[in-house]
Amino acid sequence: MSVLTETVRRTALDAAQPMALGRVTRVLGLQVQVSGLSAAIGDVVSIGERSPVLAEVAASGPAGLTCLPLGSTNGLTAGVSVRHTGGPLEIHVGEQLLGRVVDGIGRPVDGGPSLAGLDKVGVNLTPPQALQRPRINHQIGTGVRAVDALTPLGRGQRLGIMAGSGVGKSSLLSMVARGTDADVSVIALVGERGREVREFIENDLGPEGLARSVVVVATSDAPPVERLRAAFVATRIAEWFRDSGRHVMLMMDSLTRVAMAQREIGLSAGEPPATRGYPPSVFALLPQLLERAGTSPDGSITGLYTVLIEGDDLQDPVGDTARSILDGHIVLSRRLATSGHFPAIDVLESISRVTSAVTTVDQRADATRMRRLMAAHRDVRELVEIGAYVNGADVDADAAISAMPAMDAFLRQDMDDASPLDTTWAQLRDVVGTGAGVAR
Q: Model's pTM, two decimal places?
């Protein structure tokens, strides 16, 4: 029997099978109760016939299934039919995804051609085991001097961008998307304002950046389950490119809104609120998501995750948990942002845990020297501003005051000005050379 004949036979048999249907018994908040249908946790069901709504099975018991809708529940009533789609959520993956914009469950929203011809994969994937992950030993360029020189990013590293609202997190991500030397960029915009999505794609990312990127969008008005799934869909797309031998830059804006979506889901399911209203499931979710990025025997996923700090408090529970999981963090300063300093990176509060593995001895010496100069200037800044500092009182401070204009120019960068790695390290050497009084 030929392969074609066997395929036709199986398709006919599947079509001849009776369709099992369940019924909606209750719609309450984020939950849809279904009876008369058998499905496993994580499976997707379709509710309704005319305008079906997808929902994910979250719990199963004697009374039936508890499902979380991936779309609006407006118009749903008790008695509506429900059918099993056959398994968990699957998305289309392939080279044709480059340059495309999809929603939180992988459907194209950019008006482009259908993705129906691409391969389908499940959203959940087990990350590589710890001992199967190659060590991080290669620096990946972002095009941002303050990052590449003072908080260097290793290929396969996971780094958090910590900041309050309106300080420049999305703008910094767009700089990285255009300036990175990674093979592919996957960008997840979770909980963003609908107005900002097109601006980010057309202005910040631009045609050149979009051509080698995949953008996953779940705006703030999307159901919480879709916002949550958007993070895993973006990660799964990045994993597909990684497994095909690529080095991927995964950028997620923002991790906090992913946690907020899980908070809505957890509280609706009856979980007790814990720290600042976040239920325990939030803190179990974060490592499950973040550990999927990193190196693998085939390729790598370098993760950049923005963390929205409530009230600029770095001890915010989501931020504190993220810092404990990630391999470093970049702190954006509101004081720098309001003074017109872009990118508003507070270098002295930022750290990369793989610096020693991805830089040379001379590069680390130059970066350490610049940090010492900046710390010395911070200590005497107020005295200098009021004219109370006396030259010669501190050799480090004298060198810092002399070098500060050059350091400030080095740290400032226009959004369209991507700096190659070699150029960045050469410029850093020139800058720290002006502060000769500071010992190496």
A: 0.88
